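Write out this protein's structure.
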Amino acid sequence: MEVENNSFASTNKNRMYREQIITREDLNEFRSLLLTDLKEIFNTKSQAQKKWLKSNEVRKLLNISSGTLQNFRINGTITYTKIGGIIYYASNDIEKVLENNKIELVPNLFNKK
């Protein structure tokens, strides 16, 4: 008799009930929640941008050599802070330099707007 009870219990575990079926509405709700969570994660990461960058990070960001970065410091193109032997650059200052030196597109025969 015990064997029958165990087999009944195991088939009962594998049985699907109406409440366990996933509907299209369930999937749409899950999709909406997932998209909301992903947007929140991406917005958090963009806000967590580093405030101060080291020389090697600036060189990689601007794709320039260490000599060019030194010239930018000497001629005042990029502001910096030096603590000990390490030079730091404010990321918002780098963005300002890029914006101030941006060249606007002049419409011509090849790039009509």
